[in-house]
TrEMBL record:
Belongs to the IspD/TarI cytidylyltransferase family. IspD subfamily. SUPFAM superfamilies: Nucleotide-diphospho-sugar transferases. InterPro entries: IspD, IspD/TarI, IspD/TarI_cytidylyltransf_bact, ISPD_synthase_CS, Nucleotide-diphossugar_trans. PANTHER family: 2-C-METHYL-D-ERYTHRITOL 4-PHOSPHATE CYTIDYLYLTRANSFERASE, CHLOROPLASTIC. This is 2-C-methyl-D-erythritol 4-phosphate cytidylyltransferase. GO terms for molecular function: 2-C-methyl-D-erythritol 4-phosphate cytidylyltransferase activity. Catalyzes the formation of 4-diphosphocytidyl-2-C-methyl-D-erythritol from CTP and 2-C-methyl-D-erythritol 4-phosphate (MEP).
Amino acid sequence: MQYEVVLPAAGSGKRMGAGQNKLFLQLNNKPILIHTLEVFESDDACTGIWLAVKPEERAYIQALLERYRITKVKGLPNGGKERQHSVHSCIKAMQQVEIVLVHDAARPFITKPIIARLVEVAQEKGAVIAGVKAKDTMKKVRDGIIMETVDRESLWMIQTPQAFRFDLLRHAEDVAEKQGFLGTDEAMLVERLGHQVHIVESTYENVKMTTAEDLIFGEAILKQRNN
Ligand code: C5P
């Protein structure tokens, strides 16, 4: 089953504290952005990549795409103020496809078997996201005081990719924009329409490069994979 993927890449990466877009930082001498792109470039089921970029970074990213021979990028629309705006900008630029994936450009360790499973479930059910079970004891805290210990069995930490039938995600994004609703992931926009969202168990390796220590994990994952 074929799909196209939206990769929001227009963040500022403040939490990384690198003073530049964190996606340009290198893991094993290659930019994080390219690690992520190569997963989709090498996946035969992926027929198009849409990258949301900052206008001032477009030329640099285009040069990276050429240098690393990434050929599947169909468009580089302007990103927006928030991640959701960046994703919406790509969705609006796309032609109708059956299945669309949204994946953080900052998660370079996603694997093809997980992508394939997400695409399969999206085709059948309409909406599905990747996640892992919470490992730690989880508590609700207010003003430094424990309010409640939450049953861990029902708690998942949500990642990307998130996969949807294209028309469902486009509708959910349009409604959210019209109502001024801002979510922290795409699934929230679909959930609030009353549509069921399914989950596929992913791996703890599919970490988002967010803070400086994530780069250490990232290097370690690559080293282990290359052994
Ligand atoms: O900041 P964070 O790592 O949570 O962002 C997740 C992804 O969304 C990153 O790949 C980042 O480049 C992208 N993003 C974006 N537009 C924004 C904010 C983040 O494309 N306004």
